[in-house]
Amino acid sequence: MRDLVEVLYREIPSGVGSKGKLRLSKEDEKRIIRKGALWAVENGMGEKEDLDHTESGGVLEGADPAVISDKAYERGAAQQGTLGSGNHFLEIQYVEEIYDEAAASRLGIFPEQVTIMIHTGSRGFGHQVCTDYLEVMERAVRKYGIKLPDRELACAPFNSPEAQDYMAAMKAAANYAWANRQCITHWCREAIMKTLGLSPGDLGLSLIYDVAHNIAKVEEHMVEGRIKSLVVHRKGATRAFPPGHRELPDDYRPVGQPVLIPGDMGRASYLLLGTERAMEETFGSTCHGAGRVLSRHQAIRQAKGRAIWREMEDAGIIVRSAGKKTLAEEMSEAYKDISNVVEVVHNAGISRKVARMRPMGVVKG
Question: How far apart are CA 119 and CA 131, in angstroms?
Fold first, then answer.
């Protein structure tokens, strides 16, 4: 496990401002933001089957390279295929408990199976898109006379030029993120084969699902007895579509959409499924993670004088990170207990538990 964590840390760049193996020209980036995860597969990083198990097939149509700033292109040029920092991670886990054997079997999950969970997004590219368009939206609020209860809710009418440009830029960032996770998935497979001396056939590492948790999508939902077309914003939220939904791949349609809810690096993560109740009550959404109980500064103060990496090793978890500060910021005490959070969404019926995974090895930015 120590060797494997070390190889993954070396092969998949992490940390603030980390730069990846790929060096992209502006034209390369334009292709990525039009094609998403398909770009990675076409360039030998992954299989077509991966796209079947990726939300929206790993690409949103309508991304427009023309509405992206030079600064965003500049930041994205070296960050494709990188993990990043903060709460982004790569974890080697094992399936500790199964709650629904039939659903788990449909998803290819079984007890004591080794799994890998990846949490990252569009990196500096998407961050810059957000920064650029916050300024646009703040001007739009004044232009359209919108009254806000909080200035951070800056927005524009959906059919306005400002909103349409933002949607095209946001889709570009989402596509960059799907490509990023696809590249990392491919390098994970390569690292594990190299470390364990396995062939691709022996590896058996297939993608369960790739789902976004910071995205706005136009969807149809029932509102007051009528089907309406809505812009559903999921910020720190995960899509949780029910069995039978037309956006699900054929093999998952009987059970519903896989929902990934990560915990902190010292406790469990969960695999759940979307439900009809979520469609009725939460626009087909559930939570994304545990949520912090300590700010990053509070966590650093609380960790002073402690060796978090050693505490994790004593608990049987091998961890590698770009710095001690990250481990302090992301220690378990900084988060709610994910098991309590998952019980809430399960009992509320907006997603249902399938399996719990425990970490064995962690790569943090």
Answer: 21
CATH of domain 89-115+211-365: 3.90.1860.10
Q: What is the pLDDT of residues 262-306, one digit of tens each?
A: 999 999 999 999 999 999 999 999 999 999 999 999 999 999 999
Report the C-alpha gap between 290 and 269 in whole angstroms.
10
Residue 99 has pLDDT above 90, yes or no: yes
The pLDDT of 190-200, averaged and rounded, is 90
Residues 25-66 have pLDDT tens digits of 999 999 999 999 999 999 999 999 999 999 999 999 999 999
Backbone angles phi, psi at 87, to 5 degrees: -85, 10
* Separation of alpha carbons 70 and 336, rounded Å: 39
What residues contact residue 265 under an 8 Å CB cut-off, 6+ apart?
89, 91, 312, 317, 319, 330, 331, 332, 359, 362, 364
Total count of residues recorded for the chain: 365
Does residue 17 register a pLDDT over 80? no
**Alpha carbon distances (Å) from 319 to 85, 188, 193:** 14, 16, 20
354 contacts 109 by C-beta, under 8 angstroms: yes
DSSP state string for 228-292: EEEEEEEESEEE-PPTT-TTS-TTTTTT--EEEE---TTS-EEEEEE-HHHHHHSSSEEE-S--B
**Considering the chain, what is the average pLDDT of its residues?**
95
The domain spans of the chain are 1-84+120-208, 89-115+211-365
CA 275, CA 350: separation in Å to the nearest integer? 6
Name residues whose C-beta falls within 8 Å of residue 53's C-beta, 6 or more positions apart in sequence: 206, 207, 208, 209, 210, 249, 252
Position 322 pLDDT exceeds 90: no
Q: Which are the catalytic amino acids?
A: 288
